[in-house]
Every structure is written in C-alpha cells, then in structure tokens.
C-alpha cells in the first residue's frame, strides 16, 4: 500500500495534516502539563493553608479562620478536610513519602513565617485513610464522584518544641474531564478549516497543471497544435500555460516547415530520378543498364527511408485497435511467400491501438535485418510484465556490445558499405526505434547467449 501520495495535491495536504497533527499533539501535551501543574499547586496550597491558618490553636472567643478557596485547572474548589491533631503520626503500610511534595510544602509554610520541625507528606487511597473510615457519611460523599480509586495527600507537621502533630488531608481532584475531547474537537475544526482551505487553493493550482500535463502528452504524441489550453488559475500558472502555448505553436510551425521542405526535396529529387530511369532504357549495354537502374532504385529507397523517418510521429490518422498476433503472422507470411527463412514462434493474443502501417514497417525492418545479417529470423509475440513484446531473433554474428547503442543512430551499419545489397543506408533500425517510441515503447537490441541478435519492440500493454 502506498503511504506517500504521488500527486502534488496529495503530498501538500498530507504534509499540512502531519504538521497540524504534530502541532496539536504538542499543544495538547503542554495543556495537559499545565492543568496537572495547576491541580498539584491547588492541592499543595490547600494543605499549606490548612496547616498554617486552620492548624493554629484558637483562643477562646476567637472566630474560626475563613477558608481560602483553592481551585484546580478546571475551576473546581480544592479544600482540605478538618485538621486533626494527634500525639504521634506514622505513615501507613504501603504509603511512600513524597520528597518533592515535602520540599514544596515546607517552602510554602515557611514563606508564611511558620517554623517547621518535622514534616511528612504521603499520598494514599482515600478509602484507606483511618480518618475517612471512621466517618462513613464523609467517605460516601467523597467517593461518590470518583469511586474507590480517588486518592488524597496527607501532610503531617510538627513544629519545633511541640509534641502534637497537625495532620491535614487534601483529596486530590480527579483529572479534568473533557480536556482530551475538547482538544479533539478543536483539532477537527482546525483540520476542516485549514485542510479544506488548502484543498481549494491546491485544486485551483493543480487542475490547470493536470490539464497542461495532458495537453503536453497529447502534443508529444500527435504534434498537433489545435485545441490549446486557455490560461487559467493563479498568475504564475497562467504565465506557464501561455508560454507553453507559444512554444507549442512554434514547434508545430517548425514541424510543418520541415514537412513542406522534405516534401519539396522528395519531389525535386524523385522527378529527375524518374527521368533518369526512363533515359537509361536507351543504354544498349544490358549490364550497364542494370547497374544504373539499381543505383537509381537504391537512391529512391534511401530517400523514402529518410522521408519516412522525418514523418514518424506526424501521423494524420488516429491509432487503430488491432490484433498484434494477426499483424505479426501477416508480416511473417509476406517473407515466407518471398522464400525467406522466417518462422513464426510463440504468439499470444494482444490487442492495442497502433498505427498499423508504421508498426508493420518497423517489424519488416527488423525481420529484413535478421534475414540479411543472420540468415533467417524467428518472430514471436509475448507478454512480459506490463509490456507486449514483438521479438525478432536470428543466429547471425550479433553486434559487438560497445556498438549496440550506435546501431540505433541514423546511417550506422554493421559494415562500411552503403550498398543496399549488403545492408542499405543504415536507417532501418533508426526508423524502427522511432516507430516504437511513437507508440510509447522502445526498441531493445541484445546479443543472445547461444549466438545471434535479439531485437524487441516493447510496447506498453495498458
């Protein structure tokens, strides 16, 4: 499964969502820590207030000291229970002295000018405290909200030169409810607003870019400048589309000029060649006449190859869906009818939209090369992965590995002559490669382990 999207919009939205999630997680952590710090501070202040103010003995007639209100992070009142005085105090089994709270409480008490002799601070389950156990109604009231898991801080103070201990008990408020849910709701709202806004902005950018990509792919396939895109989207994207339209029009104009020029060259050369073909009929020496006719025919075929190579990719007709197995068998049959040693190997059913005339010519060129240099050819049609492969194999000498890439260039041949009887002008493989690329595929040459050359036209199956 692909986790990282391929499109620009998907990657941008995923990046924004990830950064927003990280920021919200950090914010939630900080808020939670702040709430816990306020809750702890409220507990410690309530304990200190009880020990300092309410724990002092009152003279007869003194009014009871007012209770200062301490609130936790949620705004709930944190109040210590009634002060208890006892001659001795010891932690219960299972209690653990809390050194951090002890230091904090000592600092708070001393800041109010009260001397501290011994100070013990422990945390225990509220239901296990003897003071609570002896008061069923108080116990039921305190446990009603948070259940038996609620805990309390017990702080015992003995001042210097005093024999009794002053014991304060502060029930610890439960963590604030709804903090997590509020953060989740807040995150969802931000996601909807921020990610939604980014989606609208990115769609305004990516839609014209997607249309421009499709237009570029279509122009690369057809070289037809009709139906150019109207500039739309942000200013930068509009400039890009306008520049592409201008470039596309210029390329189309250059291609049209090239076609006109090649057509004129072809006409200007073929006309005198045809006249020469007529004139050589007056040559009395039959051998000389045959040589002259072969030379004219060689020039005409080379000219046809050059013009064909220049026209590849400028097909005026759309591709037609054809059964490649039938097309391959028909081309092989043509060579068999001429007596060439060409055999049809394994074929599979495969139907693709192709330019039939061009693909047939590419296959003919490969078979002709195999017959000329390898003494025969075996032609197959296979499926390999996501490709349909037209394969032509021979048992000839092959091509030196360092020259395989050069053989696909124009006017490059395995031997030095330009005589068509020994190999022609060296445009057959170049033309086959151009036709394969016109169909979105490629021409691959490789030497066989058992000897000979393998030429493959690999076309995308989709």
UniProtKB/TrEMBL annotation:
> Histidine kinase domain: from which residue to which, for each copy?
264-462
**What's its catalytic activity?**
ATP + protein L-histidine = ADP + protein N-phospho-L-histidine
Annotated coiled-coil positions are 237-293
Q: Where in the cell is it found?
A: Cell inner membrane
Q: What is this protein called?
A: histidine kinase
**Topology of this chain in the membrane:** Multi-pass membrane protein
Give TM segment ranges: 179-202
The Enzyme Commission number assigned here is: 2.7.13.3
A single Gene Ontology MF term assigned here is: ATP binding
Origin, by domain of life?
Answer: Bacteria
Where is the HAMP domain positioned along the sequence? 203-256
The protein's UniProt keywords, in alphabetical order, are: ATP-binding, Cell inner membrane, Cell membrane, Coiled coil, Kinase, Membrane, Nucleotide-binding, Phosphoprotein, Transferase, Transmembrane, Transmembrane helix, Two-component regulatory system
State the CDD domains in the record: HATPase (cd00075), HisKA (cd00082)
């Amino acid at each position: 499964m692909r986790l990282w999207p391929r499109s620009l919009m998907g990657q941008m939205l995923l990046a924004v969502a990830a950064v927003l999630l990280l920021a919200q997680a950090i914010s939630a952590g900080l808020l939670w820590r702040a709430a816990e710090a306020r809750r702890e501070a409220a507990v410690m202040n309530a304990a200190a207030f009880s020990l300092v103010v309410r724990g002092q003995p009152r003279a007869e007639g003194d009014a009871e000291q007012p209770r200062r209100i301490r609130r936790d992070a949620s705004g709930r009142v944190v109040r210590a229970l009634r002060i208890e005085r006892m001659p001795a105090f010891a932690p219960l089994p299972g209690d653990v002295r809390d050194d951090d709270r002890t230091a904090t409480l000592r600092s708070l008490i001393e800041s109010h000018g009260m001397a501290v002799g011994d100070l013990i601070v422990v945390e225990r389950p509220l239901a296990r405290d003897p003071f609570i156990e002896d008061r069923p109604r108080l116990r039921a009231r305190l446990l009603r909200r948070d259940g038996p898991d609620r805990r309390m801080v017990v702080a015992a103070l003995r001042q210097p030169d005093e024999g009794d201990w002053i014991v304060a008990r502060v029930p610890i408020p439960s963590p604030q409810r709804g903090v997590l849910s509020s953060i989740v709701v807040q995150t969802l709202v931000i996601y909807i607003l921020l990610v939604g806004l980014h989606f609208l902005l990115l769609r305004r950018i990516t839609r014209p870019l997607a249309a421009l990509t499709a237009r570029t792919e279509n122009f690369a396939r057809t070289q037809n400048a009709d139906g150019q895109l109207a500039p739309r989207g942000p200013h930068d994207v509009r400039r890009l589309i306008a520049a592409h339209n201008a470039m596309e029009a210029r390329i189309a104009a250059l291609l049209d000029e090239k076609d006109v020029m090649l057509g004129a060259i072809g006409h200007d050369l073929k006309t005198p060649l045809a006249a020469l073909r007529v004139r050589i009929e007056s040559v009395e020496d039959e051998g000389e006449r045959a040589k002259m006719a072969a030379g004219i025919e060689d020039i005409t075929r080379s000219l046809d190859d050059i013009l064909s190579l220049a026209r590849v990719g400028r097909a005026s007709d759309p591709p037609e869906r054809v059964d490649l197995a039938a097309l391959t068998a028909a081309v092989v049959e043509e060579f068999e009818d001429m007596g060439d040693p060409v055999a049809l190997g394994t074929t599979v059913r495969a139907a693709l939209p192709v330019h039939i005339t061009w693909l047939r010519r590419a296959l003919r060129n490969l078979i002709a090369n195999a017959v000329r240099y390898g003494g025969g050819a075996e032609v197959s049609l296979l499926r390999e992965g996501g490709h349909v492969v037209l394969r032509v194999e021979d048992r000839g000498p092959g091509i030196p590995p360092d020259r395989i890439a050069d053989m696909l260039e124009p006017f490059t041949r395995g031997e030095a002559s330009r005589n068509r009887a020994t190999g022609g002008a060296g445009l057959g493989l170049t033309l086959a490669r151009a036709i394969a690329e016109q169909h979105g595929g490629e021409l691959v040459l490789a030497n066989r382990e058992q000897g000979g050359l393998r030429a493959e036209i690999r076309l995308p199956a989709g």
